[in-house]
């Protein structure tokens, strides 16, 4: 066993321990064999929590060294244990397990495809060749981590010399921590680290969906998502787009489940995941903000005053504010160089650039159909949304509202963007836009599962909103 | 009809009320029953379509994975370096890191003899590999200059010494 192997193992264990501590604290996991099923969710939540704490720590002048990570882990474990003693254990899953042979066959086939896809991605990632496939990794994502590693913290002078210093620090912070764990700057290990996170996401989704969606729907849907070429090849990509998609998609599931169950731990989990999305990429904070708006509105409609609790989701995009203050304090640009959000308030400029909006919308509508697996995914998701709208209207409306707002939000970025539109769409939208497709693929089985429940539907909509 | 609004509808007979209620219940029951059946039918179609779509690519992924398992895993340091070969000769990166002291400041000057297609990528690769050495854009401020496809005479600095890193790539120490 080399120092690198031991470092990677220790790094993964630390993330898992933090994740399980958070799940224990929120009442999702208890020290029983059944908690192993939550290993993916624990890793994803641990990555989100550690990443957020390290990011805020870096802003406060701390580093991302092993001893810092160990202290964060110890604090998370103590907090998790103290909190967990006061919270109830996990609520039993409302679903009975499927026993029909065809259902078992579909679930088994889906699981087998997922296993092959994930194992192949992992085998490819250990070669480490994928880290330089996107030039952005070489020009700023990994150099930011390198700067944090060598400077033992955030160095404004070094950041000023890189492209996009304004991009949030979570992914570079986590990569810098990995470099400290393995004892050196080794970018070829990052594809493996990102593949681990991707596999954690793949395991986390059925763990969340199991409460409402049968596995014969969940696993084939996930199998199709994972085998779309853009998803599979980006398993090992150290770009920040995949982590944003993973955290936003799982947070969307938590929010929808909260709308049904009103158990506040779901909101807390969503806040952790969305805070990580916000600290990962500027698009993450926009998607988080839109989720706050949609879930708050749905919560108020469905649950009246109790719906105000969704306002806690505001903590997630707010997690980005310290980063803005830090950038401003050090004389660095606090907003994206490629666009200025205040341009959305200039009608004349918007009218001048209307062709860009048209191009962005056309791109969003047409590009999924250039690739067969993505086309199938988009078509079946749209079909499901139409059919389940009758039986789970509130959840479907919430999901559709977020999809539309998120799509409009992304389109508006390209509308006011300064880069040449075809170049901008080709290099950026193809990665950023996938967050919406990934979220839709994760939400679809939940809605379908709700629609298949025996009458009367226990959907929050049926209980309170629908006549 | 609504208390307090002052608007009142004529009262319905019990039969009328029962009839309306029964019809509404029948319609609601019909919709509930058939919407679930429709959802189940759609779910089955969706699952079949999803599994069929995965068959188009899963074989390729399995082959990539299997091929990867059968090829030896490179040493970490080689794996770190090899992907940068698409931008610059990796021997230039290795020798630059050996030549320029870790506390030094360096600049990169990319010339055109022989022509360089993507000078930005060349700079990016050196800047990626050389930290913790400090990068500066101004050659005059640097302790060392990496002259990539550029003659040291054209750098505009006093040269203390010049060390070859790879063909057409030199590290130039600036005389102070």
Reported for the largest beta sheet of chain A, the result is: none
Low-confidence stretches of chain B: 1-19
N-to-C CA distance of chain A: 64 Å
> Helical element count of chain B?
4
Average pLDDT across residues of chain A? Answer: 91
Q: Name the biggest interface.
A: A-B, 63 and 49 residues
Cα-atom Rg of chain A, whole angstroms? 21 Å
Features:
heterodimer; A: 467 residues; mainly alpha; globular; disordered C terminus; B: 176 residues; alpha/beta; five-stranded mixed sheet; 5 strands; disordered N terminus
Topology, element by element:
The complex is a heterodimer of chains A (467) and B (176).
Chain A: H1 3-25, H2 39-59, H3 66-84, H4 101-125, H5 135-151, H6 156-160, H7 170-182, H8 190-209, H9 215-227, H10 229-233, H11 241-261, H12 264-280, H13 282-303, H14 315-318, H15 321-329, H16 347-352, H17 354-366, H18 372-388, H19 393-416, H20 421-432, H21 434-451, H22 460-465
Chain B: H1 14-70, H2 76-81, H3 90-99, E1 105-110, H4 119-129, E2 134-135, E3 144-148, E4 159-166, E5 169-174
Parallel strand pairs in B: 1-2, 1-3
Antiparallel strand pairs in B: 3-5, 4-5
């Amino acid at each position: 066993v080399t120092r690198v192997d031991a470092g990677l193992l220790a790094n993964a264990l630390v993330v898992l321990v933090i994740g399980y501590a958070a799940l224990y604290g929120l009442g999702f996991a208890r020290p029983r064999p059944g908690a192993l099923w939550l290993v993916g969710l624990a890793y994803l939540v641990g990555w989100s929590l550690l990443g957020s704490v390290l990011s805020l720590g870096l802003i406060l002048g701390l580093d991302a060294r092993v001893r810092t990570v160990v202290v964060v882990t110890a604090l998370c474990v103590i907090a998790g244990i103290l909190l967990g003693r006061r919270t109830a254990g996990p609520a039993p899953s409302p679903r009975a397990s499927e026993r029909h042979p065809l259902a078992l066959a579909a679930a088994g086939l889906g699981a087998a495809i997922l296993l092959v896809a994930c194992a192949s991605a992992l085998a490819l990632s250990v070669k480490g060749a994928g880290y330089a496939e996107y030039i952005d990794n070489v020009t700023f994502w990994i150099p930011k981590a390198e700067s944090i590693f060598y400077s033992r913290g955030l160095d404004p002078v070094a950041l000023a010399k890189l492209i996009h210093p304004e991009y949030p620090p979570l992914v570079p912070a986590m990569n810098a921590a990995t470099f400290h764990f393995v004892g050196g700057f080794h970018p070829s290990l990052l594809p493996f680290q990102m593949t681990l996170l991707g596999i954690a996401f793949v395991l986390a989704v059925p763990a969340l969906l199991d409460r409402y969606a049968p596995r014969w729907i969940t696993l084939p849907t996930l199998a199709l998502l994972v085998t779309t070429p853009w998803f599979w090849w980006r398993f090992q990509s150290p770009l920040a787009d995949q982590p944003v998609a993973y955290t936003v998609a799982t947070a969307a599931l938590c929010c929808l489940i909260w709308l049904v169950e009103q158990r506040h731990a779901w909101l807390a989990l969503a806040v952790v995941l969305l805070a990580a999305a916000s600290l990962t990429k500027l698009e993450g904070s926009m998607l988080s903000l839109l989720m706050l708006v949609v879930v708050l509105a749905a919560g108020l409609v469905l649950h009246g005053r109790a719906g105000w609790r969704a306002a806690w989701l505001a903590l997630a995009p707010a997690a980005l504010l310290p980063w803005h203050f830090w950038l401003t304090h050090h004389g660095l640009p606090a907003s994206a160089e490629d666009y200025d959000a205040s341009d959305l308030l200039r009608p004349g400029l918007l009218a001048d650039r209307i062709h860009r909006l048209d191009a962005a919308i056309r791109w969003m509508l047409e590009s999924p159909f250039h690739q067969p697996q993505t086309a199938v995914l988009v078509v079946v998701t749209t079909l499901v949304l139409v059919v389940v709208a009758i039986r789970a209207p509130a959840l479907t409306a919430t999901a559709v509202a977020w999809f539309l707002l998120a799509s409009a939000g992304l389109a508006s970025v390209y509308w006011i963007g300064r880069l040449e539109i075809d170049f901008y769409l080709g290099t950026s939208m193809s990665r950023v836009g996938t967050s919406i497709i990934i979220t839709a693929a994760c939400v679809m089985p939940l809605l379908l599962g709700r629609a298949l429940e025996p009458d009367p539907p226990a959907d929050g909509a049926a209980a309170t909103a629908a006549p | 009809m609504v208390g307090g609004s002052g608007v009142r509808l004529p009262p319905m007979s019990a039969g009328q009320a029962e009839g309306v209620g029964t019809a509404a219940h029948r319609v609601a029951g019909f919709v509930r029953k058939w919407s679930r059946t429709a959802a189940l039918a759609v779910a089955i179609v969706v699952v079949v379509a999803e599994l069929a779509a995965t068959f188009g690519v899963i074989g390729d992924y399995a082959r990539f994975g299997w091929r990867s398992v059968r090829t030896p895993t490179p040493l970490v340091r080689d794996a770190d370096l090899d992907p940068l070969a698409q931008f610059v000769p990796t021997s230039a990166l290795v020798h630059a890191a050996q030549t320029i002291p870790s506390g030094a400041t360096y600049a990169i000057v990319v010339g055109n003899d022989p022509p360089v297609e993507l000078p930005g990528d060349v700079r990016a690769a050196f800047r990626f590999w050389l930290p913790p050495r400090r990068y500066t854009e101004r050659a005059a401020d640097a302790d060392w200059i990496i002259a990539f496809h550029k003659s040291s005479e054209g750098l505009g600095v006093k040269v203390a010494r010049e060390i070859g890193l790879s063909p057409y790539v030199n590290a130039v120490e600036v005389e102070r």
